[in-house]
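Materials and Methods. Structural model of Outer membrane protein OmpA. The 373-residue sequence of Outer membrane protein OmpA from uncultured Thiotrichaceae bacterium was retrieved and submitted for structure prediction as follows.
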Amino acid sequence: MISSHSLSNRFWINTLLSILLACISHTAIANDKIQIPKIIQSIDSTISNKPEYYPQCRKTPLRVGKEDYQKGYLSLRGLKGVYINIDDVLKGAAARNVVLEENLKGLVVKMLNDAGLRLLTKEEMKKTPGQPEMSMYPSFPNHLGPYNEGDERIPYREDCCSIGIWTSFAQGAATLRDPLTNHKLGTWGTGHNTTDCSDVGGWMSKVVKETVEAFVEDKVKAEKEKIEQKEKAQAAGKKILEAKKQETPAESGAMECNTSLMMYIEMFKTNQTHIMPSKYFVLNKLAEAMMSCPTYHYIIETHADPRASHAYNEKLSEKRAASIKRYLMNKGVDENAFEMMAFGESRPVTAGVADEDYAANRRVVVTPIKVQP
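The predicted structure was written out as tokens:
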């Protein structure tokens, strides 16, 4: 039987231990905050003597629902080297006396080199920004073992024999909501299997080469699309800048109901949410059109240039939209006659960095939509 005195002592001991653990935990958290490593921006995939941190994220994460999801193979753009655990295939085959194609690893190296890639060692992969790693998971027929001395042999059965190689490519990525939290994300993969076990070594050798070939093809495809996107952005930017140079809409004359406007003129100065007085006449003409066109509904978009964080530009775009809405309603336009949409920096029309490019991206777009009377 335990005395009340012993219970009392145990209570105070447990209380003191809890306080001590809480202090230690608080100190550890405080130290963690002090010792958080500075994230540096990697210039390229040059192998260094120390592991490099991931590139720094934007100051503010994207909002849920605002993510721009893209095809998985596009993650291969800019890749300089990759670690492939082909040794698992080689060692697995050797342990089962499966003969692979001669110098299979050398052929893989050549395929990568021809595409401007380098086969990294496991240690080099760990020191490369993003840590690009291709994992090949071979599946050998059960009857091949491997066997230890004394193991019972599994009989070969042609009707239930299968071989497979499943491949997954993963890279390091910083979590949007917490840039200091890093994960390995699978962004590319493929799989092969067969029930024909007549030539296990030949089939596996062929699949390894086909997998690397498909990886290289997708990498080249990703680079090509990157160039095409850049050229498209440059062409769009040139078109925008040419349109911007056109004569500013005249202050006189009515605007047609179905007139679509992309106002390249600077309605807002940089970082400003107040409409420039010199551009009031544009909104005056728009207000007149909206009030005289009851069978149309107008979508008005506001955009921002990319020289700030996502959150800042989104808020800036929302405030600009509010300014336009307030101006139009003060002119007598019914609130139900139009809809404001703020896109921030998410839809740039030019990738340039000149002042005129930024001005073009700070655009206001008006789209009239015919509705039933």
